[in-house]
Amino acid sequence: MQNGLERKIGEAGERYECSTDERLALGTFVKLVRATESVISRTHQAIAESGLTPSQFGVLEALYSVGPLCQKELGEKILKTSGNITMVIDNLEKAGLVKRERSVEDRRYVTVNLTAEGHKVIHDVFPHHAREIAADLSRLTPEEQKTLGDLCRKLGKGTQS
């Protein structure tokens, strides 16, 4: 009974009674998600202005930084499913920013490469993006950035060793 009225299951205002550990974890999770969304929103402005989606930018950046990769490796690198990465690469290929090359030794293996136009686009967009990220993260000291990076890596690995 609350305030002289019985409370029914499912009634508005009913809450799960968290343990102290759960409350801490949930609060931390909400802060992590809000911070991530806020930083992404601010730093993706240059990407949007270039006409690229974040996934397209991710593919171009990976190819720019690492060099030619197979489609599966690209998907793993930017955390996209095989179906999604296929669509992203299809659209980049239609725009003339990447090209696929099938291996002569193993026809199942397809390498994705930047075209000259793709190289120009990422070469022009990436420096602005890097400056935006650096400016956004400058709210943290260099030591705090390193600590955050270490904690994110640890959290991202989950239960993997």
Could you provide a short overview of the structure?
This protein has 161 residues and is mostly helical. The chain has a domain at 53-138: Arc Repressor Mutant, subunit A. The protein has helices at 20-43, 45-49, 54-66, 71-77, 82-94, 116-137, 142-157, and strands at 69-70, 98-102, 110-114.
Walk me through the structure.
With 161 residues, the chain is mainly alpha-helical. The protein has a domain of 86 residues: Arc Repressor Mutant, subunit A (Orthogonal Bundle), CATH 1.10.10. The chain contains 7 helices and 3 strands, in the order αααβααββαα. Strands 1-3-2 form a 3-stranded antiparallel beta sheet. A hairpin with a 7-residue loop joins strand 2 and strand 3. Helix 3 packs across helix 6 and helix 4 crosses helix 5. The longest helix has 24 residues. It is globular and about 60 Å long.
Q: Between the first and last Cα atoms, what is the distance in angstroms?
A: 48 Å
User: Which of globular, elongated, flat, extended, rod-shaped describes the shape?
Assistant: globular
Write the CATH architecture name of the domain at 53-138: Orthogonal Bundle
How many strand units? 3
Which structural category do the helix and sheet elements fall into?
Answer: mainly alpha
Question: Can you give the mean pLDDT?
Answer: 88
What ranges have pLDDT less than 50 throughout 5 or more consecutive residues? none
CATH topology of the domain at 53-138: Arc Repressor Mutant, subunit A
Biggest beta sheet attributes: 3 strands, antiparallel
Q: Quick one: CATH class of the domain at 53-138?
A: Mainly Alpha
Radius of gyration: 22 Å
What's the SSE pattern?
Answer: HHHEHHEEHH
Helical content stands at 55-70%
Sheet-strand content, in percent, reads: 5-15%
Number of helices: 7
> Going by CATH, what is the homologous superfamily of the domain at 53-138?
Winged helix-like DNA-binding domain superfamily/Winged helix DNA-binding domain
Strand order of the largest sheet: 1-3-2
